[in-house]
Automatic annotation (TrEMBL):
<feature type="domain" description="DHHA2">
    <location>
        <begin position="374"/>
        <end position="472"/>
    </location>
</feature>
<dbReference type="InterPro" id="IPR004097">
    <property type="entry name" value="DHHA2"/>
</dbReference>
<dbReference type="InterPro" id="IPR038763">
    <property type="entry name" value="DHH_sf"/>
</dbReference>
<protein>
    <recommendedName>
        <fullName>DHHA2 domain-containing protein</fullName>
    </recommendedName>
</protein>
<dbReference type="Pfam" id="PF02833">
    <property type="entry name" value="DHHA2"/>
</dbReference>
<dbReference type="GO" id="GO:0005737">
    <property type="term" value="C:cytoplasm"/>
</dbReference>
<dbReference type="InterPro" id="IPR038222">
    <property type="entry name" value="DHHA2_dom_sf"/>
</dbReference>
<dbReference type="GO" id="GO:0004309">
    <property type="term" value="F:exopolyphosphatase activity"/>
</dbReference>
Length: 525
């Protein structure tokens, strides 16, 4: 039997923990032995190379640090013992690349440390370890750029160049959704066209993603701009509906259209419907064009789920990129209302767990809350963008003027008319410019908001091109006062062709829409 002293010694030895592995030298010591660390990098490269899942020819890690004023978070980085490890990568980057094996000389990861632009203190973000140490709204962020996003941006740039050159000698294969720019539709358009491009063996078609809004309307979609920026997608390489004349290609029979998330082409492109050759992820029971044979019925709650599944089968390593997976993940979360929509399926939930790397430090709930916050954030928007954010337009017969066609638009905003004044020095001029840009004879701004007493209020501002048309429209509203009771609002600075009113009872915006349709002569459904 062993003595009590020997047992006590063995018991103590079992709890001894040491970190003699040279890997920790860069983390724990400011006096770094560069030779030892370089040797460690070589050992890791030679020992682990056979287990890498990709065949590439170069690998390097670059850290680009933008010089900015020091925030508390950055001072913490300077005081922490991680700093020497980062500096080592910056200083010895060229030296490591010169000794790296040939198989690692293709993939490049770039980590950029930048100051965070937005303040997140107003966003209901879930708690995390990072928020405990750095606060709810850290002032810096580290952005990763890697091969997947590099390839995606290269593809978008190449297709933009092809379109600018007229797509010579090929069919234009346009991938687009309905006339909307929600995150799910835009993410699906970009990612599915990229998937078709890398898997297609047909060299006679030029697969082009088309965002089916005008580029000037992008400013009204703050959440979309934020997502594209955070995913490092070059907006200058995207093609918008007003930047390509698809009727030109249709005239010469070289246009083919793939519709996403819809079985019907947008009204503004109705003349091009015979060019539709494929429909992807439409709903069961929707009416399909009889000449379209290639139709995929969407069983998932989000089109992004079906696209992510295709990437899993083709090249799952692409989804390991944070930015790549974030774009698809954002589309799924918004399409399924954070997985709470009745149409959400188990496949949507599974794909969210697979793409969770794209959610970032606050997880899927945090990413969803950020996107929702951006959707209603008007702080960085101009008056024209606010009016364009939720905008509809009607055309119809007009008996009040000599012109046969009347165009009336309706903008819905989530703030009061008085608050809208704070976004500009001359509200009347901004509204007139918006009317001119949209070629409207009349614009009705419908405001819905909660006041300080938490009571819901609705206001309308009517703006027309002439006093005569304003009187005609107000007479029509007065005739339907039982449905739309109006009370005059005194708003300073309005023109003679503009009037503001408060609606005396809780009224749905649908009632205003129906009244506009009746005024322009559109029959009831």
């Amino acid at each position: 039997m062993k003595s009590d002293g020997a047992l006590k010694q063995n018991h103590q030895e079992s709890y001894i923990r040491t970190r003699e592995n040279p890997f920790f030298d860069g983390l724990l010591s400011k006096d770094i032995d560069e030779t030892k660390t370089s040797k460690l990098v070589m050992d890791m490269s030679t020992n682990g190379i056979d287990q890498l899942p990709f065949d590439n020819s170069a690998f390097s890690e670059d850290f680009n640090y933008e010089s900015i004023e020091h925030s508390p978070s950055e001072k913490w980085l300077e005081r922490s013992k991680i700093t020497p490890f980062i500096q080592l990568d910056i200083q010895s980057n060229e030296e490591e690349n010169s000794h790296a094996p040939a198989i690692l000389q293709h993939v490049e990861k770039i980590y950029t440390v930048t100051r965070r632009k937005e303040k997140l203190s107003n966003v209901l973000l879930p708690l995390s370890a990072a928020s405990y140490y750095n606060g709810v709204s850290p002032e810096i962020q580290i952005v990763e750029s890697c091969e997947g996003i590099y390839k995606l941006n290269a593809y978008l740039k190449a297709r933009k160049d092809d379109v600018n050159a007229g797509v010579p000698g090929k069919f234009l294969y346009a991938v687009m959704g309905s006339d909307d720019a929600d995150v799910g539709t835009v993410a699906s358009t970009i990612m599915y066209s990229f998937y078709l491009n890398v898997t297609s063996k047909n060299d006679q078609i030029c697969i082009v993603p088309i965002i089916n809004i005008n580029r000037s309307n992008l400013g009204a979609h703050v959440e979309l701009k934020w997502l594209l920026d955070s995913c490092q997608i070059h907006q200058s390489s995207l093609i918008f509906a007003d930047e390509i004349d698809m009727s030109y290609y249709d005239l010469f029979g070289s246009l083919k259209i793939l519709l996403l998330k819809s079985s019907k082409i947008a009204n503004k492109q109705e003349k091009l419907k015979h060019a539709v050759v494929e429909i992807f992820h439409c709903r069961k029971g929707e009416k399909i064009y009889p000449w379209v044979k290639n139709v995929t019925i969407g069983e998932e709650g989000s089109c992004c789920t079906a696209i992510a599944e295709k990437f899993v089968a083709y090249s799952p390593e692409l989804l390991t990129s944070k930015s790549f997976s974030k774009l698809l993940l954002s589309g799924i979360l918004l399409d399924t209302t954070n997985l709470r929509d009745p149409h959400c399926t188990s496949k949507d939930k599974y794909m969210v767990s697979l793409l969770i790397n794209g959610a970032g430090r606050y997880g899927c709930n945090g990413l969803y809350q950020l996107l929702r916050y951006k959707m209603h954030d008007l702080s960085s928007m101009q008056v024209g963008d606010i009016l364009r954010k939720d905008f509809k337009k009607w055309k119809g017969q007009d008996n009040t003027d000599s012109r046969p066609i009347s165009q009336i638009g309706m903008s819905c905003i989530g703030i009061s008319i008085g608050q809208l004044l704070s976004y500009t020095d001359n509200l009347a001029h901004e509204i007139t410019c918006f009317q001119f840009a949209e070629k409207l004879r009349a614009l009705i701004i419908v405001s819905g908001y909660f006041n300080k007493e938490k009571n819901f209020k609705r206001e309308v501002l009517v703006s027309t091109e002439s006093v005569k048309l304003l009187e005609s429209l107000l007479f029509f509203f007065d005739f339907n006062a039982s449905r739309l009771p109006l009370k005059i609002l005194q708003i300073p600075g309005l023109k003679n062709e503009m009037k503001a009113y408060q609606i005396d009872k809780i009224t749905s915006r649908k009632i205003v829409e129906h009244l506009i349709e009746e005024f322009v002569g559109i029959p009831k459904a």
